[in-house]
Amino acid sequence: MSFDDTAREPDQMFSLNRDLTGELEYPTKIARFSNIYHLSIHISKNFGAETTKIFYIGLRGEWTEAYRHEVTICNYEASANPADHKIDQIMPETHFIS
């Protein structure tokens, strides 16, 4: 994730509250965050301090063993022709939380 990615629309936003006891939980949209392999969190604001300190971020969920899926359908080209592979924009499958 780079700072350019912070302009993208996040998959979910949270309005954070002060949590001195560390007991607040923020529920996520289950449909958007199932089978996550990479998660980027952007914290854009704090409560008025000059610096932001994060002491703990806890994530809950179920652990699943990594599964490597082998290639099942593929085409081999001796010499690739870029005209055959027109793509307007490549969007990585990354989920962002703000």
From TrEMBL:
GO cellular component, one term: nucleus
Pfam families to which the protein is assigned, alphabetical: PITH
Domain PITH: residue ranges: 1-79
Cited InterPro entries: Galactose-bd-like_sf, PITH1-like, PITH_dom, PITH_dom_sf
Family: Belongs to the PITHD1 family.
Protein name: PITH domain-containing protein
Lineage of source species: Eukaryota, Metazoa, Chordata, Craniata, Vertebrata
